[in-house]
């Protein structure tokens, strides 16, 4: 039974699930964690991994990742996304269903999950489309997709215009306690919008997206969650005003949670500067006040999950006039160092930050990973938290290198990544 | 015989003219003064100056604009530059070529100055990062149209002797107007007081932070002003999208003698053209030489563009691309 024993020593364990941040050791047996403690007995056949005092934490779980597979492999494949993920410390990624072929039935969920298992070093889970073809008309086969392994449902970037259809989707999913994610953006109010509405957009001559576009949509879906009792994730919020709605919903006892992308925690609308299309995101980057409110939302636990919002776009979709450029950023490799900016700036405790990247999403989806405890999957990362980097987008692993952080100095480097007890990434010296 | 020209006072340090905000007050004043020097030449019999001899000016117009393009072409030719017009809309773009493809192609031909008119805000900034020559923004989306603001300032200086201290009302579709954006920045920089008058649906968000006075009523906004600058309202925006109808718009925001009577007695009226007569401006006002500066604006346009070309030509020829 000594096969596949790995003993991590000299580690700073960072485990938000047990609220522990301190020295410790972890013993992995096969694909599971066997023991955790301040000091564990050495097994003669165990492979020793000396963490040299660096952080050992659960691998990150990213609930919002897009690739181009199937259909737009020039953007990203499951293989390249998986490589980018483990290089960035992400060991589980949940894929959005808005691929060229919409992931809206059980066979496609099965395809994505199998293909992910074969091609990606990170675990791949699939979010199913909420409506057939994401058209917002007919409820997709949510139950069959859930049986096939879909971990949540979403209509991705395409809001469901009919309030009644949305109500029925939410209502139907309560039968099997399905989690439904809603990207809140009123399609009419935000039509043609390119960035945050405000003085900067007016000056740049770019059409704005009002915060109200987000709060209107979030309000609607929160009220529908109240009506139906559904489990609702308000996905990728961008504004302080939305946070107030989330707070009210939680105070009311609704099963409502919220996520935010790491971009919206670390950048603001001024990063668009001279029409920098690489910072053109959906939802748009808002003001500094919004950013700080979102960081505080993560700190207080009002925001449950931090996502990368990984949206790989080849250069030809980005090197265009601002109006014509695609939204989105390639983010799997920057999610951790960017998030750590907040920790290094003293805006948030490490455990609170890492919680939203590990156990937070794990609890939302009911996953066994995202924690360091005996019996949990051995998805682990060793991180040099203070390692200074100057991020060079040209060296990204992802197939698309549309990162808004190019040239930015950050701190934090993933030294090694382990999925199911297997080393899947080791940093170059 | 070539006309003689006094030398320019200060060297112009900027490589491009992309937005008014890139200029400081002195640079703006210098360009306007310099354009004033050029004005007599535009009226002289012999109109050619040797300043840009051997240089190449390319007009790259992704949107149709007869008058701006002609103005740049004339300015270039009067400075002896080789001037080429490219109407891109009809050719390469239809074949799927992007702005940057076109830029790369043109750049390889080694022009010295590219004049760009494009429908997307920020297009000039994007182009400027990709070519080795100077770029002049001749209008980008709803962002800026810097030479228009400079020619408006010159027109005001010719008419009033100064810009400082004037109260200027900019009226109409401020939301979609690059002319308004450039003028707000330049006129404020030169010490004028700027008022914006528009229905709320045609006013940009947070416009109160531009340092202008905001009005939704022509009668209130025009009270005592020295200058009324009318903006063009695109016909497609008048059918219920932003305002209910053309006739309602003219009733409340069109410039007629009654509304104009609230302005100062010596008031002057400007319009960047082309005008929608009877929609935003009454023909009687537009054609009244005692009130209208519209013809002077066109004349100032060529002189200002000559000044801008001269300023940018003080740079070396096609340099390396400053890609970012």
UniProtKB/TrEMBL annotation, chain A:
Gene Ontology CC terms, in alphabetical order = cytoplasm
Tell me where in this chain the Dihydroorotase catalytic domain is found. 54-239
Which Enzyme Commission numbers does its entry carry?
3.5.2.3
Q: Describe the location of the Amidohydrolase domain by residue ranges.
A: 345-425
Q: Does the keyword Zinc apply?
A: yes
Q: Which InterPro entries match?
A: Amidohydro_3, DHOase, DHOase/Allantoinase_Hydrolase, DHOase_cat, Metal-dep_hydrolase_composite, Metal_Hydrolase
Superkingdom, natural source: Bacteria
- Keyword flag Hydrolase: yes
Pfam families found in the cross-reference section: Amidohydro_3 (PF07969), DHOase (PF12890)
What GO biological process terms are annotated to this protein in UniProt?
purine nucleobase catabolic process; pyrimidine nucleotide biosynthetic process
The UniProt GO MF terms for this protein read: allantoinase activity; dihydroorotase activity; metal ion binding
Keywords on this record?
Hydrolase, Pyrimidine biosynthesis, Zinc
Q: Per its UniProt record, what NCBIfam families does this chain match?
A: pyrC_multi
Question: What's the protein name?
Answer: Dihydroorotase
Which species does the entry assign this protein to? Candidatus Phycosocius bacilliformis
Upper classification of the organism: Bacteria, Pseudomonadati, Pseudomonadota, Alphaproteobacteria, Caulobacterales
From TrEMBL, chain B:
Please name the GO terms that the record assigns under molecular function: amino acid binding; aspartate carbamoyltransferase activity
One biological process term from GO is: 'de novo' pyrimidine nucleobase biosynthetic process
Q: Where is the Aspartate/ornithine carbamoyltransferase Asp/Orn-binding domain?
A: 164-311
Ranges for domain Aspartate/ornithine carbamoyltransferase carbamoyl-P binding come to 15-157
Keyword Plastid in record: no
Q: Name one Pfam family in it.
A: OTCace
Biochemical pathway: Pyrimidine metabolism; UMP biosynthesis via de novo pathway; (S)-dihydroorotate from bicarbonate: step 2/3
Q: Name the Enzyme Commission number(s) assigned to this protein.
A: 2.1.3.2
Q: Which family does it belong to?
A: Belongs to the aspartate/ornithine carbamoyltransferase superfamily. ATCase family.
Recorded protein name is: Aspartate carbamoyltransferase
Species this protein is from:
Candidatus Phycosocius bacilliformis
- Report which gene this protein is encoded by: pyrB
